[in-house]
Sequence to fold (94 residues):
Amino acid sequence: MVGHLMTVLVKINDSPVEFNFVVDTGGATFVDKGVADELGSKQLGPQARINTLHLPGFPIENVFFFTTLIFHTSRPWGLPFMGLSVPLCSRGSR
Fold:
């Protein structure tokens, strides 16, 4: 946790890099536009798709996310966040 924010390290698709995400069960999934570009995510308007979002302990497949936020503004909290995740929603592998 950082302040009042619950955070989690995630991996996206086959990337070996871990990214700090804020956990939010009441919204959509967002990934920093720079990270999405770095990973080669194909844009579909303001959205793109993650094949697998690897959260600690379980993967979530076929996650559509928005790239309309830039998360560098999180640096004042001492830890840069690269995304916002909704891991408890009804998306995922079946």
